[in-house]
Amino acid sequence: MFSYLLFLLACLYAIYNGFELQKKQQDTIQAIKQEQQEEIGKVKAWFEEGKKGPEDRAWVDIHEPYWSLRYTPTFEIKQSSVLLPLGIGQAEHYGYYKEVTFWSTTYDKDMVEEIANPERLVNGNIDFSFLVIYLLPLLLIILTYNVGGLEKDAGFDKLITIQFGSLSKWLGVRFAFYVALLLSTVVLLILGVAFLNNGLSLLPSELGALIFLSTGYILSFAAIFFLVLLYGASSSSIAFNMIATWLLLCLLVPGAVHQYASMKVPVNYMTDYLDVNRKETYATYSLPSDSLSKRLLSIYPKVAETKHGQEAKPKDKIVRRSVGAIINEMNKAAVVKIEEKNESKNQLIRSSYWFNPIPFVQNQWNSYTSSDYYSYQRYRVEVQKTIVKKMELLVFDTWNKKRIEQEAYEQYIQELK
After folding, report:
1. Rounded Cα distance, 42 and 70, in Å
2. pLDDT tens for residues 106-116?
3. Which of 47, 58, 128, 399 could in theory staple to 14 by disulfide, Cβ–Cβ 3.0 to 4.6 A?
4. pTM of the predicted model as reported, rounded to 2 decimal places
């Protein structure tokens, strides 16, 4: 039972790491919100005192939409699931908060920095889901490979048949004990985390689905291993066949599929995005104001109905302050290509689930703990919506010559929450 205790300690340690990661994220988010409120309070004080901005920046005028929006601290935050300690997934490798500025994109360094860091990928925390999906079957092998096999080696199997009437029944009872032990351990740990995080209300949804998934996964491996036990000739052959099954399902098939997917859809180094940010951005800044105005009108046709839009030639200052909206559209187009390429690879992997079930279980598990690729994709969509909203406020309020007072500033805060 030493191996079982070691596995249990590893599970507890993994859950502890998950709670630590969750607490770190919650503390960071709380600090961000506090800093955000302090910044808002400082700007409101400027309005109340009749100041245009910080004393050391005479060029700033918070009555202009451009500066008022720049001094509106805007964050998009991905709240962690109460089940995060049960499956860290990609939570260590993607950003969970984003400060939205005029120049923000969904693939900024602070959004994807960690996934590009090999050291974090190697030295990441132990994941409870990894222990259950990959190591629990090995533990089941260690606990059960000599159940029946040892008796067959010693020639006692016929005696057992005489005493119990059926060797398969005797094997089933002994094997079921270990399966029940592991199954109850995993379920109790899942329920324990949900209880500590006040997540038992999720039982009809994510929590219940996670318990069902883990139970089905353990029972599936148990069924395969029981057949190996039943028809194995000796403990050594049983151990060999069990390990071969584990290697095939957990390593060889997923590895082969991943390698094929990597060749079919090569790793995306975001070259389209980098080109937009480096070359095309600089080229856009160098365009004359007339060209920039035309491009802005193609993005926001209603700009033509604004006060500046009805002028024969809008001021260069107004046009230049709207360049961020043009760059944002370019970035959005590049991001679409990146997402499409990622989705094609994901679709290829999903098509292998019928003979490659382990990635299916892993991805489903992470989806229930909101730490999978699509959870962060939905978060990126929310970030993009906030970016677009900030750009629209900038463009239309600037082109409409809107003067910002404290009430309008507070409206910005509400709209960009």
Report:
1. 13
2. 888 777 644 33
3. 128
4. 0.88
